[in-house]
Write a structure and sequence with these properties.
The complex is a heterodimer of chains A (488) and B (312).
Chain A (H helix, E strand, L loop, with lengths): L1 E2 L4 H16 L9 E5 L5 H15 L8 H7 L2 E5 L5 H13 L5 E6 L6 H10 L10 E6 L7 H14 L5 E3 L7 H11 L13 E9 L8 H26 L8 H13 L18 E7 L1 E3 L2 E3 L17 E6 L11 E6 L6 E8 L8 H4 L7 E7 L3 E9 L7 E9 H5 L6 H11 L8 H20 L6 E3 L6 H9 L8
Chain B lengths: L4 H4 L4 E3 L4 H12 L8 E8 L2 H12 L6 E12 L4 E4 L2 E7 L4 H8 L6 E5 L6 H8 L2 E4 L5 H7 L7 E4 H5 L1 H10 L3 H5 L6 E6 L2 H14 L7 E6 L6 E8 L6 E7 L5 E8 L2 E9 L5 H10 L5 H13 L1
Parallel strand pairs in B: 2-3, 2-6, 3-5, 6-7, 7-8, 9-10
Antiparallel strand pairs in B: 1-4, 4-5, 9-11, 11-12, 12-13, 13-14
Chain lengths: 488, 312
């Protein structure tokens, strides 16, 4: 059951994901979709929307094929207001009609302001309770709260009607193939884990860069900003996967326990309010000015449609994170994210320490570049290792080269979309790749003081030109530590 | 002389900016039919007027044992969204507004691998943003004084060199070797006249600046410049002490076939016969190949350029 069935997320991601899962033969024969939204539509109109969604977001060949048509015949639509108890009675009746009472997954693809209403109504109508041999689960989209208090309140409400093992807080980053592969890379190989610590690693950089601006999300983004939109959820999740200790088993609880340990080791973040780096601040914020991205001139953030002309919302955030544990003491993790940056890329780079003795310094008159392990999360999923090599020839000259593994070239075919993986996991009851309530609350607790400091000093915010890699203040933060952002 | 991107990259195809990466990947796959596909090892960004980019395009496409590079050719104009043309691993952007040069390079350079900016001319203020993105900047301007003045302000943050400097490598090495001779070293302070026969006065000035920033000459040191022959920046360099009866001199000049240099030394207590040294590969490809192999800052070049700029 998709709440928000006529919305953008449903059209762009959820319906194409359902189609691809069906094409891969991962859905049961009795699978059905019930779409729910305020728009007045009947089943046939919803099926038409499904076909259009496939044509636009899953490729033109998908729209009319046998699998799509078979799926379409099992798509239903119920219109109504989410706070109307009658809507939920109609949903109950529709479930009975289509004989789908065994397992039901509720997907909240709706504005966060309506989450609590839907959860309350699902509880009050009995739709949260599973029959003896069935299950009921609920997927909640981000943002899960807007701060610690609201996240706690939402968790309390969810736990009034659902057990924690029924609640799936989705973070689509965790569904990406390379993010999952981090676990395999670290714990399925014997050679990396022994060097995955402060003795060998100098620092870690995690970057999530977008070329797009605020687009049609101004109303949401103005109240959120980069720290809430990206750091609190996606980047903290990725950080915890890089920093976690080995779990005792590949089970949801074991993995999520170790991720929590890593997050709990993060030192409190501070900001001096103005988004700059003075006073030991851990966080830099900035907003994009007019510039040039992807081959075209673009306006500044404040000139975007729907944005306050004096907006103080940050479109860029860079954070220095220190962890207090044996593995990572003294190894900073630098996180950065921003809109209107030069490239769309998300990656984790592990920079190793230099060799203890530079025996080639005399021959090549230069320090060797440190080894670098780069995990490309998107768009070109893969893993690269940079190392030094001798240049061919009679002279002793050295240069860096990359050893690359790419999913696309190695395995061919298409890598599953994150939503496919996560939808299927939720249906199968595997919560490994979903955020647990304590993780969400702890990450909000970490960024809360920063948000408070910014709120107290809403004035001028540092800026960066659209198409550049962020503001000078972010470079200064690195320079203070004797480091640089790596070239992407 | 090229005047358009299609002449720069005749075998290429026009693509939108967002499709450059895709087109390069496709081009690399097609090119790999006959020979094994090679990995890219660096990005070289050639910036300059379109008529100076043709030679750069040829050089980038024929780079050999330095490895395969991603080439980015950018000519200056006033177009905020110029067409892009891709051939293999090289892309040309013709007529881009200079204020967006660094944005284009930031989007197109290879991650994690060195970026070399090859400056063949343009507005000096454009250099700042490019230098910020580069591991190394190689200057190669036909009228270099404005860019030299700009470059010295950027030495703290970026490594710089100049192709004139690279072409003088053997000339400098031979001059330095003179001073390995104890008698020459002892007479160093006596030399007071530098004479250079050069077809490229800027090369001569750069050499002179290097020499003067390296050796403390006495007051009254003079420099004469004479015309040289076309085709080589410098024909002869002569460092002398003309005041003594026996003229002391150090001379470097082209040997008969102009592929080697020969030297002559005459100081009190020492005379040496001619010594022949190959000039090395002086083509653009050869010089850029050599620059790609260098990673350290060149302190001697920086000192020379600072001396030249402050002395003008």
């Amino acid at each position: 059951m998709i709440f928000g069935a006529s919305g953008d997320l449903t059209r762009r991601k959820l319906l194409p994901a359902v189609y691809r899962l069906s094409r891969r033969g991962r859905l049961p024969a009795q699978f059905a979709v019930i779409g729910i939204a305020r728009s007045q539509m009947d089943d046939e109109a919803f099926r038409t929307q499904f076909r259009e969604s496939l044509r636009e977001f899953a490729g033109p060949e998908a729209a009319g094929d046998e699998i799509a048509e078979s799926l379409a015949s099992r798509m239903y639509y119920v219109a109504g207001e989410t706070d109307d108890p009658a809507l939920h009675q109609r949903l109950q009746a529709r479930l009975t009609d289509i004989d789908g009472a065994e397992g039901v997954l509720y997907y909240l693809a709706i504005p966060p302001t309506v989450y609590s209403t839907v959860i309350e109504q699902l509880g009050a109508s009995g739709l949260a309770e599973a029959p003896a041999r069935g299950w009921r689960r609920i997927i909640v989209e981000k943002p899960f709260g807007t701060d610690l208090d609201s996240a706690r309140a939402l968790n309390r409400l969810a736990h009034q009607h659902f057990d924690e093992d029924q609640v799936y807080r989705i973070d689509h980053y965790l569904g990406k193939e390379t993010v999952q592969n981090l676990l395999v890379f670290r714990f399925g190989n014997g050679m990396f884990e022994p060097v995955w610590n402060r003795r060998y690693i100098d620092h870690v950089q995690i970057t999530a860069a977008e070329t797009v601006g605020v687009e049609h999300r101004a109303a949401y983004y103005e109240g959120a900003g980069a720290l809430r939109d990206m750091v609190q959820n996606h980047l903290m999740q990725v950080l915890s996967l890089v920093a976690m200790e080995p779990p005792i088993a590949f089970t949801a609880e074991s993995v999520r326990d170790r991720k929590m340990d890593a997050l709990l080791a993060v030192q409190p973040l501070t900001s001096n309010g103005d988004g700059k780096t003075s006073g030991g601040s851990h966080v830099v914020r900035a907003q994009y000015r007019a510039g040039w991205v992807s081959g075209a001139e673009v306006p500044g953030y404040r000139a975007e449609k729907g944005v306050n002309a004096a907006s103080g919302t940050e479109t860029y955030a860079a954070v220095r994170v220190n962890l207090d544990n044996w593995r990572w003491a003294g190894v900073p993790f630098y996180l950065r994210t921003g809109k209107r940056l030069p490239k769309r890329t998300t990656e984790i780079s592990i920079q190793f320490r230099r060799p203890p003795l530079e025996i080639f310094r005399r021959a090549s008159q230069v320090s060797v570049a440190p080894n670098l392990l780069v995990v490309n999360v998107q768009p070109d999923e893969g893993i690269s290792l940079r190392f030094e090599t001798k240049l061919p020839g009679t002279r002793m000259q050295i240069a860096p080269v990359m050893m690359n593994f790419r999913y696309g070239t190695t395995f061919g075919g298409e890598v599953p979309e994150a939503y496919e993986t996560l939808l299927l996991d939720a249906m199968l009851g595997d919560a490994t790749l979903f955020a647990r309530h304590d993780f969400v609350e702890t990450s909000w607790a970490l960024i809360g003081p920063v948000l408070d400091a910014w709120r107290a000093q809403p004035g001028d915010i540092p800026t960066y030109e659209a198409g550049e890699w962020g503001p000078p203040e972010a470079d200064e933060m690195m320079a203070q530590d004797g480091r640089r952002w790596r070239s992407l | 002389m090229s005047s358009s991107p299609s002449e720069l990259l005749p075998a290429g195809a026009d693509v939108s900016f967002n499709k450059i990466g895709e087109a390069m990947a496709r081009g690399s796959c097609q090119d790999s039919g006959a020979t094994p596909m090679r990995a890219l090892v660096a990005t070289v960004v050639a910036v300059g007027p379109i008529d100076r980019l043709g030679a750069a395009a040829e050089a980038l496409q024929s780079l050999g044992d330095a490895g395969t590079v991603r080439g980015i050719l950018i000519s200056e104009g006033d177009n905020p969204a110029p067409p892009a043309r891709v051939a293999g691993n090289t892309v040309a952007l013709h007529g881009l507004k200079p204020s967006f040069f660094n944005n284009a390079v930031a989007a197109l350079r290879l991650s994690s691998l060195p970026t070399l900016v090859w400056w063949r001319g343009g507005r000096p203020d454009t250099l700042d943003g490019l230098a910020d993105l580069a591991d190394r900047v190689v200057l190669d301007d036909s009228r270099p004084e404005p860019i030299w003045s700009r470059a010295v302000t950027l030495f703290e943050d970026s490594a710089f060199s100049d192709l004139r400097w690279a072409r003088l490598t053997q000339w400098r090495a031979l001059m330095a070797h003179f001073f390995d001779i104890p008698e020459v070293l002892a007479a160093a302070a006596d030399f007071s006249r530098l004479s250079i026969a050069a077809s490229d006065p800027m090369s001569a000035r750069l050499f002179a600046a290097w020499l003067r920033s390296s050796i403390q000459f006495r007051d009254g040191f003079t420099m004469d410049m004479a015309d040289g022959s076309e085709g080589t920046p410098i024909d002869e360099i002569r460092l002398e002490d003309p005041r003594t009866e026996l003229v002391q001199k150090l001379v470097i000049r082209f040997a008969a076939h102009r592929t080697c240099l020969e030297t002559e030394v005459s100081v009190r207590g020492h005379r040496s016969a001619s010594r022949l040294v190959s000039l090395g590969d002086q083509t653009l490809t050869g010089l850029i190949t050599e620059e790609l192999r260098i990673r350290a800052r060149d302190a001697a070049f920086e000192r020379a350029l600072i001396h030249l700029v402050s002395d003008k």
